[in-house]
Automatic annotation (TrEMBL):
Residue ranges of domain PDZ in the record: 97-163
A family per Pfam: PDZ_2
Transmembrane segments: 12-34
PANTHER family named among the record's database cross-references: CARBOXY-TERMINAL PROCESSING PROTEASE CTPA (PTHR32060:SF30), TAIL-SPECIFIC PROTEASE (PTHR32060)
InterPro entries named among the record's database cross-references: ClpP/crotonase-like_dom_sf, CtpA/B_N, PDZ, PDZ_sf, Peptidase_S41A, Tail-specific_protease
Name of the protein in its database record: Carboxyl-terminal processing protease
Family that this chain belongs to: Belongs to the peptidase S41A family.
GO cellular component, one term: outer membrane-bounded periplasmic space
A molecular function GO annotation: serine-type peptidase activity
One BP annotation, GO: proteolysis
Key words, A-Z: Hydrolase, Membrane, Protease, Serine protease, Transmembrane, Transmembrane helix
Length: 382
């Protein structure tokens, strides 16, 4: 009996040492442990989890993968927030996320988000990738990957399933306009070239930004300088289907356009506001920004700042509507997490989450949006 008590005590001490996030143990001598009251209360809340884990390991009818149990419990912790953008990512999933932000991976080239309706929703297919060529569209719901049902809660698993060796196939079952359809798509190495440009008629510059990864701002500046050296008299920035990405890249691009002022401000759970400011540089030619329902997150921040500062005209359709900011953090074992830490607001104080940004000029037809942008600029160019 004494042996069992000592064993339980050792387990208890180990648990307390793990959950004491700030090393708040006051005394540890012999068989006595003294901790702060708030730490003990925290332990009591978590003790059920430890007890159930141990019971499962000892009594489940087959051998249990302990790490899988722990990962599932950690995922459940984030799921309890009822926020589709906050997630615990195991080592493989976190590595996959980091690969995407660096701009290279093997897959089909689509951006997805966990929808509030429980479905994995395509924000946009990336231009000139297998998903784009297969005809996937913003708003499509992914029901199955390789005939296995997936839900918004399993988005990281689904993303992992859609990735794979170059040249192999993946089958997607999607829901579009209440109709199911299946597509077999061959994976490729996705090398994201996020910025391209050209000179259109009447010396109008055109810059397309497909996403915001680590090289986007640098590429944007180079493309803008090239267009300016060719004497452009107006500029179109195309953010259609751009699902967002890294905020620092968005900030650097805004620096080239807005002049001095607020790009965006955030508000956390304590009401504290933080302002992201642009410097004094700005373009001195008429500007149009193309947006649609696939323009999300950082795209909406850039579009909202341009609109509120009256630095340009938004043309197209209402954007996706993601007004939440996530922080991505690695953990020591290679895993990591995304946590929504604040809401963001446009410079004029508009909260666009769930409703998006409305364009100054609405043009529903995709083919007509660029034509309208050119027409609008012709009327404003000197």
């Amino acid at each position: 009996m004494r042996f069992k008590k000592e064993k339980i005590l050792k387990i208890l001490i180990g648990i307390i040492l793990v959950i004491s996030l700030s090393a708040n143990l006051i005394l540890l001598t012999g068989r006595a442990v003294v901790i702060r009251k708030e730490d003990y209360e925290e332990y009591k809340k978590l003790s059920k989890l430890v007890t159930l884990k141990k019971f499962i390991q000892e009594n489940y009818y087959t051998q249990v993968d302990e790490q899988k149990l722990i990962d599932s419990a950690l995922k459940g912790l984030f799921e309890g927030l009822d926020d589709p953008y906050s997630q615990y990512l195991n080592e493989k999933e976190f590595k996959s996320l980091m690969e995407y932000t660096k701009g290279t991976y093997s897959g089909i080239g689509i951006i997805v988000t966990p929808g509030e309706d429980g479905f994995i929703t395509i924000v946009s297919p990336i231009e000139d990738t297998p998903g784009f060529r297969a005809g996937l569209k913003a708003g499509d719901k992914i029901l199955k990957v390789d005939d296995k049902e997936v839900t918004a809660k399993e988005i990281d698993k689904a993303i992992s399933m859609m990735k794979g060796p170059e040249g192999t196939n993946v089958k997607l079952t999607i829901l579009r306009d209440e109709k199911e359809m299946s597509l077999n798509i061959k994976r490729e190495e996705i090398r994201l070239k996020t910025v391209r440009s050209e000179v259109l008629e009447e010396n109008i510059g055109y810059i397309r930004i497909t996403t915001f990864d680590e090289k986007t701002a640098q590429d944007f500046k180079q493309n803008l300088q090239s267009l300016q050296s060719q004497g452009i008299k107006g500029l179109i920035i195309d953010l259609r289907g751009n699902p967002g990405g890294l905020l620092d890249q968005c900030k650097e691009i805004a620096d080239e356009i807005l002049g001095k002022g607020t790009i965006v401000y955030t508000k956390d759970n304590k009401g504290k506001k933080e302002y992201l400011k642009s410097d004094g540089r700005q373009i001195d030619i008429p500007l149009v920004v193309l947006i649609d329902e696939g323009s999300a997150s950082a795209s909406e921040i850039l579009a909202g700042a341009i609109r509120d500062h009256k630095a340009g005209t938004l043309i197209g359709t209402t954007t996706f509507g993601k007004g939440l900011v996530q922080r991505v953090r690695p953990l020591n074992d290679g895993s990591g997490f995304k946590l929504t830490i604040s809401q963001y607001f446009t410079p004029n104080g508009e909260y666009i989450h769930g409703k998006g940004i409305q364009p100054n000029i609405v043009v529903e037809d995709e083919q007509e949006q660029l034509k309208k942008a050119i027409e609008h600029l012709k009327g404003k160019m000197k």
